[in-house]
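Service request form, structural biology core

Requester: graduate student, group of Dr. S.
Request type: structure prediction, single chain
Budget code: on file
Notes: please return the result as structure tokens.

Sequence provided:
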Amino acid sequence: MEHSLDMIFSDIHSVSLLMDEWIILEIKKEFPEVRIHHLTYISAIGPIGISNVDLIIKVGKTKQAVNKVITNLRAHGLVVVNHYHSLKFIRINLTEHGEALFESICSSRLKLQNIYSDILGINRYNHLLVALSRLKSFHKQ
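Core staff response, request fulfilled:
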């Protein structure tokens, strides 16, 4: 049983990494500056933007780590940072280039979702989604 649990954790982690790698390969042609860790940040910021505090919570990283990535995203022209009331509260929004990247990420995820559905069949794919959702809910409690 212990070996089986190790395999589950290893397989879930591997599939997660492979999904990100597949998406990066899909979007690298149009966005060569993008790195794999940028996916999480661009997706979290989204088309409506996000505060720096909410972004830190959403990506689960330290303030310093988030600031480093945001500085990198700004250098590539993917985000703009607006300061409100103080330097402690900032709002991060995608630029036009960042929004195009966000749309490309969403499109690639949808394409991968369709591929997975074809591989597993619609019923197994839906069962997989329910199972993963239940596991995620368990860990959020």
